[in-house]
């Protein structure tokens, strides 16, 4: 797995290392070694992302091969008002979406519909009712807590 981190606060040694270690930890927890092998993840830390885009994070496929994506862009709100814990929790959430794309559990169609596992949904669902978001919220705290136990032991 290749990992690149850039943007706002990426010069902060502690935050940079925590994000690096967390990204590798989350990837290893969520994906097999075979799937990790060819992954490339670009993480961009953005000031006031929530204010600008209405979310604390995004996970986008960069790869031309949408059926077998291996290149991703994760963007996180790294504003000074947000703690490292919050940023690492949002990273766990977005890494869950990355896992969903890589394992072909989640697929976005150009007509705005989304396939989650074997069922196709129109984007008319409320955000909190989307099953892929439910999984990401369920796993974000679990992954963060497991990471901190490992990181600080």
Write a short abstract of this structure.
The protein has 153 residues and is α/β, with parallel strands linked by helices.
Report the end-to-end length measured between terminal Cα atoms: 24 Å
Instruction: List low-confidence stretches.
Output: none
Average pLDDT, to the nearest integer? 94
How much of the residues is beta strand, in percent?
15-25%
Cross-sheet strand order for the largest sheet? 1-2-4-3
Largest sheet: 4 strands, mixed
Structural class: alpha/beta
- Overall geometry comes to globular
Strand element count: 7
Helical content (DSSP H or I, runs of 4+): 40-55%
Number of helices: 5
Rg = 15 Å
Order of helices and strands: EHHEHEEHEEEH
Please explain how this structure is put together.
- The model has no long low-confidence stretch (mean pLDDT 94).
- The chain is of the alpha/beta class.
- Helix 1 packs across helix 5.
- The radius of gyration is 15 Å and the shape is globular.
- The protein contains five helices and seven strands, in the order E-H-H-E-H-E-E-H-E-E-E-H.
- A hairpin with a 2-residue loop joins strand 6 and strand 7.
- It starts with a strand and ends with a helix.
- The strands form two sheets. The chain has a four-stranded mixed beta sheet with strand order 1-2-4-3, with helices on one face. Strands 5-6-7 form a three-stranded antiparallel beta sheet.
- The longest helix has 21 residues.
